[in-house]
Design brief:
Blueprint lengths: L1 H33 L4 E4 L5 E19 L5 E11 L8 E6 L16 E8 L4 E8 L2 H46 L4 H21 L3 H27 L8 H10 L5 H34 L5 H30 L1 H9 L4 H6 L1 H39 L2
Antiparallel strand pairs: 1-2, 2-3, 2-5, 3-4, 5-6
Helix pairs in contact: 1-2, 2-3, 3-4, 3-6, 4-6, 4-10, 6-7, 6-10, 7-10
């Protein structure tokens, strides 16, 4: 009875903390971000660009235009009221679908809040809609996520949130600035990934033998994954110039941009999450086994780790494949529309890049099973012998 009461007390306390986390996210962060919804810059071409928010007050006209290939593209003519900035309160008319292509699902409705860009040149002043303002739903989603992590994960969930923050800090405070400063993306990403793994691993799982073994397995598996990524991107002739973002990056920093290095870095960072999952799972299973039966030698522990790891690795490889396929689904549909041989589609760089990315990450996951299993088995066996010698 006492244990049941303590359990519900724990649930209530964690639930209140989770609720406070949700309210704190919405009440504290939103006003801070609302103050930063406007900016004004001068582009390298001498144009002044002002960003502000506006609200759709009226749909003046709506219909469809036909392209040269006979495809109907929807368009709208909208009246917007500017909410902030030097033109606050003024109304402007905008056309959507004539210059920027849109879809039926992306059409605006009265009441929608959008980011509006004003471009001022010596000859004219033009406006265009950059995007919807999604701040409120994003904050709600983040708040619900934080609440669920705290409610279900408790103290471990709080540590995992700290690990997420550390990961973002390493990426945006170390990896991205170092690459922009001209450092080698391969070396920067590898160092940053090891820093990220070390900090988040000990923050979430504490300073113990299980965490030591998991980190050793992760580091070695990560280095092997990085070597595979470097070898296979060069072998398959990938350049990294497959996306609109890559083209914009070349326009901003010039032809010296190391897009192949960035592609490599993306492969390494993309494999980190599942590597963490595999290695911690393997290490945790080994130390649980040795606690249940101290007579197991490292060979027996290693065999058991392989049995446990096979199922985990198979599921993770499938997860990795589906994650990459999901993010590339529009690209896959676009290639499916073209009447060309399958081998030619597979040979195209955007598809080949995703294939190499998936296979490199999967190889790293598969190798992480025996690597972490062996290291954890040796460590757990040595620790058991030392304690009982």
């Amino acid at each position: 009875m006492l244990k049941s009461e303590r359990f519900w007390e724990y649930v209530i306390v964690i639930g209140l903390v989770a609720l406070l986390g949700l309210l704190g996210t919405l009440l504290l962060i939103k006003p801070f971000l609302e103050q930063r919804l406007t900016y004004s810059i001068v582009t390298p071409m001498g144009q002044q660009e002002d960003l502000c928010t506006a609200r759709v007050v009226e749909i003046i006209d709506q219909g469809a235009t036909e392209t040269s290939s006979g495809v109907a593209i929807p368009y709208q003519r909208l009246r917007l009221r500017i909410e902030n900035g030097p033109l606050a309160g003024q109304e402007v008319e905008i056309e959507e679908g004539t210059i920027h292509i849109t879809t039926q699902e992306a059409l605006y409705r009265p009441g929608d809040r959008v980011y509006l860009v004003r471009v001022v040149t010596s000859e004219a002043e033009t406006f265009y809609i950059r995007d919807l303002v999604r701040l409120t739903p994003l904050l709600w989603i983040a708040g619900i996520f934080i609440s669920l992590v705290l409610l279900i994960g408790g103290l471990r969930g709080l540590r995992s949130l700290g690990g997420m923050v550390l990961s973002l800090v390493v990426i945006f405070a170390f990896i991205v600035p170092q690459i922009l400063a001209g450092r080698d993306p391969i070396l920067v990403t590898l160092i940053g990934a090891i820093m990220l793994l070390t900090a988040s691993n000990y923050l979430i799982y504490g300073w113990n033998s299980k965490a030591h073994a998991a980190l050793a397995g992760m580091t070695l598996s990560l280095v092997i994954t990085a070597v595979l990524a470097w070898l296979f991107t060069g072998w398959s002739g990938l350049t990294g110039l497959t996306s609109e973002e890559s083209a914009f990056l070349v326009m901003e920093v010039g032809g010296g941009a190391n897009l192949k290095g960035l592609l490599f870095g993306g492969m390494v960072i993309g494999a980190l999450g599942v590597l963490d999952d595999i290695c911690v799972g393997q290490s945790s299973a080994i130390f649980e086994l040795v606690q249940a039966n101290r007579d197991l030698g490292w060979q027996a522990l290693f065999r058991h780790s392989l049995t446990i790891g096979r199922d985990h690795a198979a599921a993770s490889v499938n997860t990795l494949l589906l994650a990459y396929a999901g993010t590339s689904l529009p690209l896959l549909l676009l290639f499916a529309l073209y009447q060309e041989p399958l081998w030619l589609r597979l040979n195209s760089e955007p598809v080949a890049e995703e294939i190499v990315r998936t296979l490199v990450g999967s190889m790293g996951l598969l190798l992480a099973v025996p690597i972490t299993g062996l290291l954890a088995s040796l460590w757990a066996s040595w620790q058991t012998r030392r304690r009982h010698s």
